[in-house]
Amino acid sequence: MQRSLLVLAILVGCTRSSPKITGFDEGNALPRLDLEGVAHRVGVDAGAPIARFDDASAVGEGAAAPRLLLVHTVMAWCGHCIQETDAELKMVERAGHALGIIQVLVQDEYGDPAKQDLVQRWITMRRSTLPTGTDVTGALGRRFPSAATFILVDLADHRRIRYVGAGPKGFEEAKARAGDALGIAF
Q: Which residue among 8, 97, 142, 167 is least packed, with the fewest CB closer than 10 Å?
C-alpha cells in the first residue's frame, strides 16, 4: 500500500507543469495581498462597493493591526467553506481586535476562477462582514488550486506565516493555533 501511494504521489508531482509559487510557506513573511472586493470590517453593511484593497488596508496596519491574520482561500463549491465562514465570523466576534480574517475567493461554484460577481453573492449569501475579495494577481489560486487553504500570519512578527493548512483539518488546526496564541478558546 505504501509503495502504491508513493508512486501515485510521484506521478502527480511529475504531471504538474506550472512552477511553484513561492512566498506562502511557513516561516516566510506573507507577501502583500492585492485584492479586489469588499474590504469592510465587522459591523459594516455588506453592500459596500467593489474596490481594490490589500490585506493591510482591510485589517489595519501598525498599532491598528490585529496581532494575527487568518487568510482563507475559498472555493465557492466547497460546503466546508460555507460552515467555516460562519465559524470565522464567530472567531472575529470573540477575539475582537486581536484577530483579522480575510477571505480570498479562488474558485466559483463550478470550479472556475472566481470573478467579481461572486464577491457580492458570497457576502450576501453568507451574511459575511469579513473582508472578501478575489486575488488580482492570481498567485493564491495558482499556489493553492484545489483545496481551501488557511494561512495564519503573525502580524506582530513582521507578517511571519506561522501555519499553512488545507481543508477542514487545516481550518481546525489554524483555529486552535490562533486560539493558543491569543489565549482564547474558539
A: 8
Cβ atoms of 122 and 109 within 8 Å: the answer is no
Distance separating alpha carbons of residues 174 and 96, to the nearest angstrom: 17
Q: Grid coordinates standing for 48?
A: 459596500
**CB-count exposure of residue 147 (10 Å: 0-12, 13-18, 19+):** middle
Cβ neighbours around 85 below 10 Å, total? 21
Identity of the amino acid at 82: I
Helix (H, G, I), strand (E, B), or coil: what is residue 80? helix
> Distance (Å, rounded) from C-alpha 26 to C-alpha 138?
20
Beta bridge partners of 99: 68
Are 151 and 70 in contact by the 8 Å Cβ rule? The answer is yes
> pLDDT tens for residues 13-68?
322 334 455 678 999 999 888 898 887 654 444 456 678 888 777 887 777 778 99
